[in-house]
Write a structure and sequence with these properties.
Layout (H helix, E strand, L loop, with lengths): L19 E10 L6 E11 L4 E5 L6 H8 L7 E6 L7 E4 L11 H11 L4 H14 L15 H14 L4 E5 L7 H18 L2 E6 L2 H7 L2 E5 L6 E5 L15 H4 L1
Parallel strand pairs: 3-7, 3-8, 5-6, 6-7
Antiparallel strand pairs: 1-2, 1-4, 8-9
The chain binds adenosine-5'-diphosphate (ADP) and magnesium ion.
Length: 251
């Protein structure tokens, strides 16, 4: 009693700067009268460790946003800042897995580590550790074409996570999987991102999937996509996400 109340959350300075911060970010394709506005302008902040889902109709610019955040595509207008803890890298996972068919499973997972110049022996160990974690220990020497869709997506997950990304970008990663496998991989992904506290931006066209996975769900309008709604879904499973810190939320 008599203690001053803390100021409302919105007025408190954030504990840490966002892992991703976009302001008036927009992108179009083509020039002049033929230009097609594909995205934005939109503002977006991802808190460190937060799992944010982005939902929107086909063609609204979700992949464009992820490709910009991954550095695969130049932003057209606006600002984009990515500030990960200790400069950890950004990983992206694509709907079609994006793994290399001509490399073994082990070589696929080691690929990102090689780019980061992790010494060969350590890269090998880390890659094998992640394969084991994804239940793929026995498939290190296999070629992806011999694996099921679910296993291929696990290879992609192992490759993305082995580099210990500060930001994980996922573009409809489970859309091609059957419902049972999707649920399994959703669970695995939640567990992994919570343990590693990886900031994640997960794109899906399924509101149901977004509500299951997200600490926060952002809804985009049709092209050019802008963020038109934001929800913090009720949750049915334990979470350790950055924004779920009230006692009722961590039960
Ligand atoms: P989503 O992932 O939400 O389905 P995209 O980001 O792939 O949407 O595409 C947004 C819009 O931009 C679409 O109209 C698409 O056709 C267009 N677009 C995407 N990439 C290119 C490109 N490289 N050149 C021209 N238009 C593109
Ligand atoms: Mg897309």
């Amino acid at each position: 009693m008599g203690e001053p109340h803390p100021p409302p959350a919105a007025h408190r300075p954030p504990d840490r700067p966002p892992a991703l911060r976009a302001r008036a970010l927009a992108r179009s394709f083509g020039r002049g009268s033929a230009a097609l506005a594909a995205l934005g302008p939109l503002d977006l902040d991802l808190a460190p460790g937060e799992f944010v889902c982005l939902v929107g109709p086909s063609g609204c610019g979700k992949s464009t946003l992820l490709r910009i955040a991954a550095g695969l595509l130049r932003p057209g207008e606006g600002e984009l800042e990515i500030r990960t803890h200790a400069g950890r890298p950004t990983s992206m996972i694509f709907q079609d897995y994006g793994i290399y068919d001509w490399k073994t499973v082990l070589a696929n997972v080691r690929f990102g580590l090689d780019i980061q110049r992790v010494p060969r022996k350590e890269a090998d160990e880390r890659a094998r550790t992640w394969l084991a974690r994804m239940g793929l220990a026995d498939f290190a020497g296999a070629y992806p074409a011999t694996l099921s869709g679910g296993m291929r997506q696990r290879v992609a997950l192992a490759r993305a996570l082995a580099v210990e990304p500060g930001l994980l970008l996922m573009d409809e990663p489970f859309a091609a999987l059957d419902a049972q496998l999707r649920t399994l991989l959703q669970d695995e992904l939640l567990g992994l991102t919570q343990t590693t506290r990886t900031t994640t931006l997960f794109v899906t066209h399924s509101l149901e999937e977004a509500l299951v996975l997200g600490d926060r769900v952002l809804v985009m309008s049709a092209r050019p996509g802008r963020i038109i709604a934001e929800r913090r879904p009720p949750f049915g499973r334990p979470r350790t996400g950055a924004v779920r810190d009230t006692p009722a939320c961590t039960a």
